[in-house]
Amino acid sequence: MKTIYSAIQPSGIMTLGNYIGAVDNWHRMQADANNSCIFALADLHTITVRQEPAQFRKNAMSFYALLLALGLDPKKSIIYFQSHVMEHAYLSWLLNCYTMVGEMNRMTQFKDKSQKHQDNINMGLMDYPVLMAADILLYDTDEVPVGIDQMQHIEICRDIAMRVNSIYGDVFRIPKGVLTKVGAKVMSLQDPTAKMSKSDPNPKAVISVLDEDSVILKKFKSAVTDSETVIRFDPENKPGVSNLLTILSVASGKSIETLEKEFEGLMYGHLKVRTGEAVIEMLKPMKEEYKRLINDEAYLLSCAKDGAERAAAIAEKTLRRFKDAIGYVSL
Length: 331
Ligand code: TYM
Description:
Elements (H helix, E strand, L loop, with lengths): L1 E7 L7 H15 L4 E7 L1 H4 L6 H17 L8 E4 L5 H10 L4 H5 L2 H9 L6 H15 L5 E3 L5 H18 L7 E3 L34 H9 L17 H14 L3 H7 L5 H27 L2 H30 L5
The structure holds ligand 1.
C-alpha cells in the first residue's frame, strides 16, 4: 500500500486551479486500490493571513463539503481538519528545531506573501513550510499530489526529514511530490503569465468551482489571449491560449494534440466558449451534491470527527517515534 497525503487551505474560494492541479488528482489516486489516502483541510495554515471568524468557519465547512461533493469518499479516505489533530502543531514545533531560518527565508511563497501582507508578516507565515512538513511526515507519506507552486515546500520537507534521519536513524519516511500530467499550474484568465490564485483581487481572473454557469461562461469569454489567430499549445509565446487548451483538455478528457487538430481554422472565440461549456459540464454533478451536503452540517461534522480520529491514531504513533528518538521521557 502507498500512502498518499495532501491538503488544501479553506481560505476564500476553491478555484479551478485547486481543482485541476490537486483535487481532481486526489480523486484519481483514491480510485486506486493500492493507495491509502489522507486529505486535510489545512485550517491551521489559513490563519497566517488574518481571517474574519464567522467567514472562516463558513469557508471551512464549505471546503469540507466541496471535497466530498468532488468525489472524495470519507469511508475510503481519511478526510479531516488539520486543527482537529493536535499532533500537527506539536510536530511542527519539534521540526522547527531542525530547520534553519535561512531555509525559510528563501521560500518563494514566503517572499511573495510578505510582499502582499506587509502589515502582517507574522512568524506563522515564515514557519508555514515547517507545519506543512509536519502534516506530511506524520502519516509516513509516500506521495504528495500538489500543484507546481507547492513543490518547493515538499523539497524542504524532504530536506528536514533527511536531516532528522541523519541524526537519529530511520524516523521519517521520505515523501515525494507528484504533479498531475496536465494542469499542474492553471493560469489566471486575465494575466496568463501568473498562477490562478484564490487571493487574486480581480474576480474575472479566477473561476470558483461554485460560480454560476453563466458567470463561468462570461469569465472564459473575456479571457486574455494574444493578437494572433492560431490555436496552438505554446505556453511561452501563447500563454493565454495554452492555458485554455490545458483547461479544456482536463475538462473534456481529450489530449491537447487532439484539441489542436479540432480547432484548426477556428477562432479564439470558439475555444473560449468550448472551454467554458466543458468546465460547466465537468462541475455540474459536484454542484448538485454540494447543495445537498452543505445543508447537512451534522453529517459533515460526523465525517470530520471520524476522519480526525483515524488521522490522530496514525499521527500519535509517528510523533511518539520521533520523541523517543530525541530522548524525551515518556510516561
Ligand atoms: P493551497 O490551498 O494554496 O492549494 C491547494 C492545492 O491546489 C494547488 N493549486 C494549483 N494547482 C494548479 N494551478 C493552480 N493555479 C493552483 N493553485 C493552487 C496547490 O499546489 C495545492 O496542491 N500549503 C498548501 C496546503 C497544505 C499541504 C500540506 C499540501 C498544507 N499542508 C501538506 C500538501 C501537503 C496550500 O496552501 O495549498
